[in-house]
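Ops channel
N.P.: pipeline sanity check, posting one input/output pair.
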């Protein structure tokens, strides 16, 4: 296969991508719907999901660069290719934690200067940033017609200072005045598009009248960022055909791609998408299954939050949220689940229309492994302790149906888990320690699995085997075995065609170690 040029390496310019690359995932019908029927739009998505490219595409659309859209969906519509003046802010590139409000003012001021120079407008460049912004919009509108405003990663200054409450409050006040200009300049504006990771209620853009339409969880726009299964198979057909034999044929290859990179749901309609960054890097790297999105870096705001909060991380396995929890964050009320969702570590797994509750889970194998490693490196010593040879032996023991070997190998690493995050050592934290290590190895381990008879502590799926764990702390092993018998958990998997092995495990607080385990076949 002749290697096609993929948009790898930070292609955030639509013009550059269309001129240089062989692949573009066509999202222009979404943009047609938005630009034709809305005045102001807000979109929240995790990092590296294509928000910046989307902003650049909107810019080219309103600049009337029709030639870049040839053969794309919007070229078949009645879109009028009228040129509008565009003010495009990118707030993602600065270290606001170091520079504070002055750095924010400098960044916005320099971008306003660039706009004025590009269009040859000469409003007074003195005064506050909101005043300059307002005058620039008015001048552009008077000379060139209605203005388009694009703000990419608007919340970067707030997330960058999430661990500095005083500084974050000062930045929030500056942003409040800045975004207030957009509301007051409505008569001069054709369209406004704002992206971010979160939605902060205390920014004036999201309060009072004339606020942008939030499309972040609207079913019609669930795939505006990311790649659907149809798009994957259509737009990457040459790569799939070339690499499928290496992974056991087309169906096996597509199934593995789905397990590793798919699984992001942003609406209750449950349309899954792949992470664009991961898929592109996978094909570019000759179809190696690596956690490319995760390798590119843990979002700094997530790391800062987890470091400064007393996070009950075991609750991640059973995360639930009301619809209102996904947005409208105030500065001091961001909590763990919304943050992990917005960061891309959790996604919607189920929606209960009666209660309005969303259940969350890990999107895919890449994220399950990566979050486990991140948590392990922050909250335990297990990540450094697990060497490759031992990791392989742990996995092999489960795949071969040898739970005694598995427990013997696992015990030394459980002994190293740091439980200092909690003042108590309970079965729940022991469950977390086990699932964390198993997920790091790439196998699936779920905690608190509910059945008609009760709740299984942990369940590991490994090839032809299913392992059910019952953990006890400072209790006899007989208590664990009795519960396995009494609740008959194994019957849940009676039709799976797999062999079920139940394991009772006892942990000692005093010894901070596994002291006993027993198997039940």
């Amino acid at each position: 296969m002749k290697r096609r040029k993929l948009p790898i390496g930070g292609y955030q310019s639509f013009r550059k991508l269309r001129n240089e690359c062989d692949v573009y995932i066509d999202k222009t019908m979404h943009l047609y719907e938005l630009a034709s029927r809305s005045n102001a739009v807000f979109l929240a998505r995790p990092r590296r999901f294509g928000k910046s490219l989307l902003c650049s595409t909107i810019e080219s659309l309103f600049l009337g660069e029709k030639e870049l859209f040839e053969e794309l969906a919007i070229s078949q519509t009645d879109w009028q290719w009228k040129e509008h003046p565009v003010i495009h802010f990118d707030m993602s590139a600065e270290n606001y934690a170091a520079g504070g409000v002055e750095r924010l003012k400098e960044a916005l001021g320099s971008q306003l200067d660039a706009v004025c120079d590009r269009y040859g407008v000469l409003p007074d460049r003195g005064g506050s940033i909101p005043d300059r912004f307002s005058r620039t919009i008015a001048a552009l509108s008077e000379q060139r017609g209605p203005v388009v405003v694009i703000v990419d990663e608007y919340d970067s200054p707030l997330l960058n200072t999430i661990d500095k409450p005083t500084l974050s409050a000062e930045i929030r006040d500056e942003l409040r005045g800045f975004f207030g200009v957009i509301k007051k300049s409505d008569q001069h504006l054709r369209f406004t598009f704002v992206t971010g990771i979160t939605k902060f209620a205390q920014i004036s853009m999201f309060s009072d009248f004339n606020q942008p339409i939030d499309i972040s969880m609207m079913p019609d726009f669930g795939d505006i960022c990311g790649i659907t299964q149809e798009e994957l198979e259509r737009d990457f057909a040459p790569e799939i055909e070339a690499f499928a034999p290496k992974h056991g044929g087309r169906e096996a290859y597509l199934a593995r791609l789905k397990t590793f990179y798919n699984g992001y749901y942003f609406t209750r309609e449950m349309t899954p998408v792949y992470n664009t960054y991961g898929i592109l890097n996978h094909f570019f790297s000759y179809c190696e299954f690596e956690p490319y999105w995760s390798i590119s870096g843990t979002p700094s705001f997530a790391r800062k939050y987890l470091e400064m909060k007393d996070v009950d991380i075991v609750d991640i396995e059973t995360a639930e949220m009301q619809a209102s929890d996904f947005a409208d964050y105030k500065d001091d009320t961001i909590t763990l689940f919304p943050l992990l969702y917005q960061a891309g570590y959790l996604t919607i797994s189920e929606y209960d229309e009666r209660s309005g509750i969303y259940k969350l889970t890990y999107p895919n194998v890449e994220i399950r492994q990566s979050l486990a490693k991140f948590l392990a490196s922050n909250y335990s010593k297990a990540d450094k302790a697990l060497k490759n040879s031992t990791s392989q032996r742990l996995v092999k023991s489960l795949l071969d149906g040898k739970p005694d070997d598995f427990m013997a190998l696992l015990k030394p690493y459980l002994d190293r888990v740091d439980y200092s995050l909690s003042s108590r050592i309970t079965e729940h934290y022991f469950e977390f320690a086990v699932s964390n290590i198993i997920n790091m190895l790439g196998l699936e381990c779920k905690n608190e699995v509910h059945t008609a008879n009760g709740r299984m502590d942990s369940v590991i799926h490994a090839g032809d085997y299913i392992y059910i764990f019952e953990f006890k702390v400072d209790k006899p092993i007989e208590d664990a075995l009795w519960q396995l018998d009494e609740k008959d958990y194994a019957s849940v998997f009676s039709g799976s065609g797999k062999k079920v092995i139940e394991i009772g495990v006892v942990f000692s607080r005093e010894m901070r170690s596994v002291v006993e385990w027993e198997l039940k076949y």
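N.P.: looks fine end to end. Residues 27-221 form a domain with the Rossmann fold fold (CATH 3.40.50).
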